[in-house]
């Protein structure tokens, strides 16, 4: 089991072993990863590698957040944006490759673009619980330039052209970023695009699986279709790939 989250507030133990126990999964390898809004793609990339390498038969990937605990309700730039939620998938072996090559990376030189307002030592000393801060303009600039190019690399890595794509599920940062990515990729109108930010907000690591579930539940997307997913956020980090929808 791999759990992607930034809102499990114990340094140790990780949340994954506890969740595995609660689900009745006995003696499972279980650990957490922290890759912010790219966490789901990071996790399924690791899961795919474990299965392909023969180190696991099935992997349960969970992405979950309680960002309401970290949201500054007095910050007009973020108070309306962040939400709670979780999503999960089970990965297993297949005769058909359902997960394309990952495009991922980081830029630690921009760690202060999205940040936690205080480390835990400071929080203990001051008695003030830390919140999330964000430079929205810097995020927009990065997402509409660098991330746009990275998203195109996901398509290229899978050997697909825009007209071969069925569904596009980008991280739900804001609709203007999504619109810019659509223009850059030149996706046809036939491609279904996730826009769950309007109902669910930005759920960090849980955003992409929640958006995927919303599209599948509504019937806008269907199992077996080809989807491009990408997450990007604090770090700064990003990860994306083409997948076959479950």
TrEMBL record:
The keyword Transferase applies. Residues 155-244 form the Beta-ketoacyl-[acyl-carrier-protein] synthase III C-terminal domain. Keywords: Acyltransferase, Transferase. GO terms for biological process: fatty acid biosynthetic process; secondary metabolite biosynthetic process. CDD domains: KAS_III. One of its GO terms (molecular function) is 3-oxoacyl-[acyl-carrier-protein] synthase activity. It holds the Pfam family ACP_syn_III. This is 3-oxoacyl-[acyl-carrier-protein] synthase 3. The gene is fabH_65.
């Amino acid at each position: 089991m791999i759990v992607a989250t930034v809102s499990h507030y114990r340094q140790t133990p990780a949340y994954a072993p506890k969740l595995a126990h609660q689900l009745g999964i006995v003696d499972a390898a279980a650990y957490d990863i922290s890759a912010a809004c790219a966490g789901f793609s990071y996790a399924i990339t690791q899961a795919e590698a474990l299965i392909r390498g023969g180190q696991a038969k099935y992997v349960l990937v969970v992405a979950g957040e309680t960002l309401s605990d970290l949201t500054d309700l007095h910050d007009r730039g973020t108070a309306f944006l962040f939400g709670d939620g979780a999503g999960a998938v089970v990965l297993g072996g297949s005769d058909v490759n359902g997960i394309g090559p990952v495009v991922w990376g980081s830029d630690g030189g921009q760690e202060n673009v999205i940040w936690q307002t205080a480390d835990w030592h400071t929080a203990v000393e001051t008695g003030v619980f830390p919140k999330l801060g964000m430079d929205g303009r810097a995020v927009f600039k990065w997402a509409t330039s660098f991330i746009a190019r990275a998203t195109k690399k996901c398509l290229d890595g899978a050997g697909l052209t825009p007209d071969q794509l069925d569904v596009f599920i980008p991280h739900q940062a804001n609709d203007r970023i999504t619109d810019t990515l659509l223009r850059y990729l030149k996706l046809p109108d036939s491609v279904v695009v996730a826009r769950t930010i309007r109902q669910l907000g930005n759920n960090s690591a849980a955003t992409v699986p929640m958006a995927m579930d919303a599209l599948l539940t509504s019937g806008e997307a269907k199992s077996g279709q080809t989807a491009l997913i990408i997450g990007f956020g604090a770090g700064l980090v990003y990860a994306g790939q083409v997948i076959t929808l479950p």
